[in-house]
Amino acid sequence: MASGEEITVCDDEVRSRYSHLEKMTDLVAVWEVALSDGVHKIEFEHGTTSGKRVVYVDGKEEIRREWMFKLVGKETFTVGATKTKAAINIDAVSGFAYEYTLEINGKSLKQYIENRLKTTNTWILNLGGTDYRIVLEKDTMDVWCNGQKMETAGEFVEDGTETHFTVADHSCCIKAVSSGKRKEGIIHTLIVDNREIPEAVE
């Protein structure tokens, strides 16, 4: 760029990119929820004087209600590619103080996270400069990578099962082997290009 050249940024571009943030004057809660198709951000606005309720999922407005005379209640919506059911409960604590709780699939966020730790495995890795988040749903053996359900091929092997798939031309395999201990159950291990990937904690 030659010296003296000016760079102009279109105000409309900047305004549209951040428009939902400018409007969030009544933002009362933000949650991050890890689902198989990715980590989703849920934001909630509650105008206690206007009765306004707005729910954003990943920056996109999902629900808008104006002039709600009843300030407590519940807002239900879906999150992610799998349309996971979610609800925000609005409860009066005292006077004009309110408590906001998020439910995922009918469970409190805490219960959902605890259950998810038992029913899924998550690995985060970098291949060729790109980050990948791989999730195994143990109950269905579905494999997700960066929000996409993967085509897999399963096979029985001598000590358990192997689920094969490909990520960016890299061969991947999730090995399922019995731990030999009843409480631990089956151990799932991700192997990419013959290298074991450590499990991530979300």
TrEMBL record:
Q: Which GO terms describe its cellular component?
A: cytoplasm
InterPro entries cross-referenced by the UniProt entry: FAIM1, FAIM1_dom_sf
Q: Which GO terms describe its biological process?
A: apoptotic process; negative regulation of extrinsic apoptotic signaling pathway via death domain receptors
Q: Which Gene3D superfamilies match?
A: 2.40.128.180
Q: Which UniProt keywords apply?
A: Apoptosis, Cytoplasm
Where, per UniProt, does this protein localize? Cytoplasm
Q: Does the keyword Cytoplasm apply?
A: yes
- Indicate whether Cell membrane appears among the record's keywords: no
Q: Name one Pfam family in it.
A: FAIM1
Which superkingdom is the protein from?
Answer: Eukaryota
Task: Give the protein's biological function.
Answer: Plays a role as an inducible effector molecule that mediates Fas resistance produced by surface Ig engagement in B cells.
Q: What's this protein's family per the entry?
A: Belongs to the FAIM1 family.
Q: What is this protein called?
A: Fas apoptotic inhibitory molecule 1
Q: Which organism is it from?
A: Taeniopygia guttata
Underlying gene:
LOC100231025
